[in-house]
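Worked example

This section walks through a single chain of length 291. The input is the sequence exactly as stored; nothing has been trimmed or padded.
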Amino acid sequence: MTSSRFPVSGAGLGLRRSFLAELDRVPAATLPDFLEIAPENWLGMGGQYARDLRRLTERHPVVCHGLSLSIGGPAPLDIDFLQRLRDFLDQHQIRAYSEHLSYTGDSGHLYDLLPIPMTEAAADYVAARVRQVQDLLGRRLILENVSTYAAPGAEMSEADFIKAVLERADCDLLLDVNNIYVNSINHGYDAEAFLAAMPGERIRYAHIAGHCVEAEDLRIDTHGDDVCTPVWDLLQSAYRRFGVLPTLLERDFNIPPLPELLSEMDIIRQHQALAAGKHVAAPTRAEPRHG
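Given that input, the structure is written out below as tokens.
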């Protein structure tokens, strides 16, 4: 069961096409509680992949995490894309649609998440675009706090900018715990203080992932390694502050076999049980490899 606050519950995993057949052979007890897909990777797809996806979304809760909305970009919103996206979300009964609080280019995609200047004017601009997206999709948009490596033109703190956009747009938050930790190192702020500043009533689910240690003061958000101990600790802190959030494990590079991913995803369940006051063994944690 999910509450009216959360679109899904439990521990989730980002779906890759190579997992489609394997998931049918996974014991029910170890299956993800929900799955996440990038809609851009599936829109307009036909044939066996389309049939497999339809079968999967009929059997499992699925959320979408977009890559190309470019909500903070200078180019006009892609209305044709949004209309096709709306049909896709409806067809597959997608539980929630999230995107990144960033932009991805101007009149073309750069395939990277670029930082929005954190100003009052930018917050107003982004909020207006979010409201337009929500009207076109007929559903609330969930925005993710992103990892950044520079803060061009910043006049506000990251936490204040996020809160301003969410409040002015009246949209929701995807809390990426790894991105909080990465930015706390890259920009020299306190991760716990940032977490405490987030509007808990707007959080709909959480992400957790691994990152690359480039230097003592530089972390790169690669989603290419195991989740490290400080990020697990920050997730547990988020549960104490906001309740047991639905939480998804992201892995986009150096992808291990599915059973290994499911084992790491199970660490989320251990943390959720611990936060809920259930008697469980201390969660098993893996330390990341330095890249």
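What to look for: Strands lie at 11-14, 34-37, 62-65, 97-100, 141-144, 172-176, 203-208, 212-215, 218-220, 247-249.
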